[in-house]
Specification:
CATH superfamily of one domain: Nucleoside phosphorylase domain
Radius of gyration: 17 Å
Oligomer: single chain
CATH topology of one domain: Rossmann fold
CATH class of one domain: Alpha Beta
Strand order of the largest sheet: 4-10-9-5-11
Order of helices and strands: EHEEHEEEEEEHEHEH
Number of helices: 5
CATH architecture of one domain: 3-Layer(aba) Sandwich
Shape: globular
Length: 227
């Protein structure tokens, strides 16, 4: 199978997240695979934006995908109506903690809101309709705004600040970095996330993570993957 001209590049930060798409995936089975006549490629980005920048660009250059599908879990901000186990497709992602801490309200100034902010710190618009041939007919998810952070929210105050500053619904650790790297190659990104916690007190129960990943798997597909 030729790698160049790949239809879909599937990525996730960790193996458990990638297994929501492909239950029996393993390190040995990462790479090129076929799905319903599509040429696909799977990879782990690693956790955090630095890991994404270290791993993803070389793969994008090698396989030249038509679409990146980034999947995984996320933390839902309070007052958004999102509950543990809910799914969302990212309408956009923004870097939520690159900037300056302020002594007064709102407590944080995003770098993109400064005169010397760069395109690297802007909002990245995603392909908000997750519609490719392997998804169930009529599959629908709400398109919501994501906030990518290096340090996950651990207090109600920080969660409220990020929610209000960016009008975000959930937070991830890789979303904006994946979109940013893909933009260098003019590749669209679709990001699908399952809520595994409420981004305030970081109650990361293993049962909640399992529930989120199960719902993600049920949405994505039950289509067998071959290698």
């Amino acid at each position: 199978m030729s790698k160049k001209g790949t239809d879909l590049l599937l990525c996730a930060a960790t193996m458990p997240e990638l297994s929501a798409f492909w239950p029996d995936v393993s390190e040995a089975r990462l790479g090129a695979f076929a799905l319903q006549g599509l040429q696909c490629y799977s990879m782990l980005t690693g956790v955090s934006a630095p890991a994404v920048y270290a791993s993803l660009p070389a793969v994008l250059q090698e396989v030249q995908p038509k679409l990146v599908l980034n999947i995984g879990i996320a933390g839902a901000y309070e007052s958004t109506g999102l509950q543990i186990g809910d799914l969302a497709v990212a309408e956009s992602e923004v870097f939520g903690d690159i900037g300056m801490e302020l002594p007064d309200t709102p407590g944080f100034l995003p770098l993109m809101n400064t005169p010397f902010g760069s395109a690297a710190c802007s909002e990245f618009v995603m392909k908000s309709k997750c519609c490719w041939s392997a998804l169930p007919a009529g599959g629908y998810l709400p398109a919501l705004r994501g906030c990518t952070v290096n340090s996950c929210t651990g207090t109600e105050m920080t969660g409220r600040m990020r929610r209000e500053l960016f009008q975000a619904h959930f937070e991830t650790m890789e979303g904006a970095a994946v979109a940013h790297a893909a933009s260098w190659f003019a590749v669209e990104v679709c990001e699908v996330r399952a809520m595994s916690n409420i981004a305030a007190k970081r109650d990361m129960q293993s049962a909640n993570i399992a529930w989120a990943l199960k719902n993600l798997r049920l949405f994505l597909c039950d289509t067998p993957v071959t290698r």
